[in-house]
Input
Amino acid sequence: MGPGLKVEEAPTEPLDLGQGHTLKLFAFKSLTPDEIVGGWWEHDDPDLHLRCTGLIYFDVAATGHVDKEKYLVKSWEPLTMGKRIQCCHCLTAGHIKEGLWRPYGGRHE
Ligand SMILES: [Zn+2]
Output
């Protein structure tokens, strides 16, 4: 992330994706407030019973300079992501489809 770009929570309630997953949208402070560039993903760690948080960058024009994996947004309302996301802490994986969490694979199905 370049200098002068500060992450700021978007003025919306976190999206409740179900199954304990939420996504709090965020924007870059130096851009228009409505330009959503990603989300804070929160969920329960299935083993440690802690709350995991992770940052997901959306594949939009404003994140072009961000040197992180980015995720295509196929639909904003309801939110549908173009590919699977995986937590780097607890390895929980799944899709966000039509505003809901869809677990991927194994024991989380
Ligand atoms: Zn996790």
About this structure: The first strand starts at residue 7 and ends at 9.
